[in-house]
Amino acid sequence: MLGLRSCLTRVLAARTLAPQVCSSFATGPRQYEGTFYEFRTYYLKPSKMNEFLENFKKNVHLRTAHSELVGFWSVEFGGRMNKVFHIWKYDNFAHRTEVRKALAKDKEWQEKFLIPNLALIDKQESEIAYLVPWSKLEKPPKEGVYELATFQMKPGGPALWGDPFKRAVHTHVNRGYSKLVGVFHTEYGALNRVHVLWWNESADSRAAGRHESHEDPRVVAAVRESVNFLESQQNMLLIPTSFSPLK
């Protein structure tokens, strides 16, 4: 009996002292809520951009009747040309499944929206992402331009790099160099990928803020800490379309 008690004491003590890894960047709470965002990127055939956007504008109501469009942008700078990027919101995966089923039965959407647009698209990409727990989707105060900054982090997940990344983002926000729209962590697509959506009044104001931040010791220190966990990064300058909810 004494041997058994001694063994149990050692086991319980080990459990008590075992380190626990926590991160405010973990997406658990958002996944529990269910709401997620689908990031879609369409690469259009050369010379077909205007035709695609005109048809989308004319018939977008047929698509938004089924689910919420967060924003729709043309890509001005960053990567391949003739590219559009859009974000759709879903309550959960069951909601998205029902939307896709409804679209498959919607003849008007297929004839006026889907079929004409498919002929103009060269390539499509899709990612599923959650807002991180410390970020909510913000609406900018007026029309402007957007920057989607994408960070490919080292394997290990938010428990490894979440806190330094959060500090880097908040330092930029607190210093007023740009307005944060939302921070997203991928669930499907490239793992350990974070998308940060920023808003600025113009491309020039964005450039001015970026130059100032490079000379800000607080920003420099926060960024240096986060880049230790970074594998690569890229960005795109996005111009909202006339039918985009986010302007």
SSE map:
Layout: H1 2-17, H2 28-33, E1 36-44, H3 49-64, E2 68-77, E3 83-90, H4 93-105, H5 107-118, E4 121-131, E5 145-153, H6 158-174, E6 179-188, E7 193-200, H7 203-213, H8 217-226, E8 230-240
Helix pairs in contact: 3-5, 6-8
Family: Belongs to the NipSnap family.
Domain NIPSNAP: 37-136, 146-245
Protein name: Nipsnap homolog 3A
Detailed description of the structure:
A hairpin with a 4-residue loop joins strand 6 and strand 7 (193-200). The longest helix is centred in the last third of the chain and has 17 residues, at 158-174. 24% of the residues are buried. This protein is α+β, with helices and mostly antiparallel strands and 247 residues long. The chain has an 8-stranded antiparallel β-barrel with strand order 1-3-2-8-5-7-6-4. It is 41% helix and 31% strand. Belongs to the NipSnap family. Pfam families: NIPSNAP (PF07978).
Radius of gyration: 22 Å
Amino-to-carboxy terminus distance = 72 Å
DSSP E strands, number? 8
Q: Give the integer mean of the pLDDT values.
A: 85
Q: Shape from CA axes?
A: globular
Return the string of H and E elements.
HHEHEEHHEEHEEHHE
Profile the largest sheet.
Answer: 8 strands, antiparallel, barrel
| Strand line-up across the major sheet | 1-3-2-8-5-7-6-4
Protein name: Nipsnap homolog 3A
Domain NIPSNAP: 37-136, 146-245
Family: Belongs to the NipSnap family.
Pfam families: NIPSNAP
In short, what is this structure?
The chain has 247 residues and is of the alpha+beta class. The chain has eight helices and eight strands; from the N terminus they run ααβαββααββαββααβ. This is Nipsnap homolog 3A.
